[in-house]
Amino acid sequence: MVGIMDLPNEMIIKIWNNLNNIDVLYSFLGVNKRFDKLARSPVYIRSIQLTEKNSKTNRFYPLPDSIIDRYCSDILPQIHQCIECLILEPFSMERILLLCVYPRLRKLNFTKIGEDFVFRHFTEKSPLINITHLSLTIDLKWFTSLSAIDLGEKLVPQIFRTFRNLIELDFNENNIERRPLISLYGLSSMICYSSSLVNLSINVKTFNDCLCLFDGRFPQLRK
Is the pTM of this model over 0.85? Predict the structure, then answer.
């Protein structure tokens, strides 16, 4: 019987391509020099999703502690310099982001995010300031104020102050009924402004909020 060790690299890669990146790295990184080299391919380490997604409900869930522990203690310290995209859930995201410096990181997807995390880590001194693509699902349970005006005044300016090179911003929300409405009307273009933003996905409260998107504060906005 032929084992995976005996297969040519091309066949091993075909098998691995049927797995997700998390399983490939968790199962094969460090097994031997050959597998280690294959697993370090940009295909597997460029984008890392450290959360589990239910294909039926389209919701994200935490990975088992044993997997997160292994990633934090062994895998991420080896590949952090090559990671360009991270997809994170709330229970482990702070631990992962503070673990290493990610010099090539440009894309961040937070499956849920709360007010406390935003104001501790979305700052002008944050190591995340070079992010160009940001997707975040607002967890309404974790914001002290749920009004559209307060979300606009607190959250949106904080994002643009932190991420000065932002090209794409997506206020992602899978459950339509829980989508937060955000009000930009009345916000000064001095605090709600981006010279680089090209793509924006946002649920605004009123038509006046929509008009604010086209009043010159986002000169590069195309979509």
Answer: yes
